[in-house]
Amino acid sequence: MTSIESRQAFGPPFSERKRKRPDIIADTLRERMIEANMHPGDRIPSEWLDPASLGASRGTVREALKILEFQGMIASKTGPGGGVFVRSVKPSEAIQMVTNLFLQEPPSIANIYALRKKLEPELAADAARDLPFDALQGLQETIRLYQKKPETTEEEYVQRLAELDFHAELARHATNPVLGFTCGLLLNLLRDLAECRAIYQTRNPGLRESGVFYQIELIKAIGARDRTRARDIMTEHMIEAEAYMLARARLNRGAD
After folding, report:
1. What pTM value is reported for the model?
2. Judging by beta carbons within 10 Å of its beta carbon (0-12, 13-18, 19+), is residue 250 exposed, middle or buried?
């Protein structure tokens, strides 16, 4: 029995009974796409979208399609050869959508670093094993953006974000896509959460020097394909970064 047939046999879960009809139809269409193993560019069969077969009005089906389009699952095309097609979702789009979810109820800095301390060292070890040479050069170029001492608070803020770009480059090249996505999400939270932005906008020249040191050492370890060394460097870096962020957050809250 498929999951769709199971739903029809036993009815939707209690949580779905309170949901609106377009949401339930969107879930049904999504499951059909998954069970049919559809790929980006595949056309959604027109019979799947027939209001009569879905037991809904045309307006309700349109609302369901809008939900799937908002989620990045589908795209509609008009004219000859038009229809509803499976759409590829870029990791950056998905990361931003999940980030927006957390902006309403932000996680704490401790929450973020509890994961970063576990995942970033594995990301570094992964890079030491498989990172291509051209990607290693990209990391070196990223460091050059903030090696120069900033002259203003605004320049220092831009450099702090560039430091996060270094970690984002590692995440983009992760051989484990789930690891890369999760690390990318944590970095995006650090960029967007108001508490973190306030910390990054606070001047601290020594912090830049510390970050550059760790990242230069990390590049050396990655270039030498030394996974253990890369993991150890990143672990130390994350512990120091967490300590600074937590201490600065307490100071900022005290100033308020």
Report:
1. 0.78
2. exposed
Cα within 13 Å of Cα(161), Cβ side: 13
Express each pLDDT in 151-165 by its tens digit. 777 777 777 787 888
Cα–Cα distance measured from residue 76 to residue 133, given in angstroms and rounded to the nearest whole number: 40
pLDDT digits (tens, 9 = 90+) for 21-77: 999 999 999 999 999 999 999 999 999 999 999 999 999 999 999 999 988 899 998
DSSP calls for 133-188: HHHHHHHHHHHHTTSSPPSSHHHHHHHHHHHHHHHHHHHHT-SSHHHHHHHHHHHH
Q: Give residue 129's identity as a one-letter amino acid code.
A: R
Measured in residues, the chain has a length of 256
The answer for residues whose C-beta is within 8 angstroms of residue 11's C-beta and 6 or more apart is 17
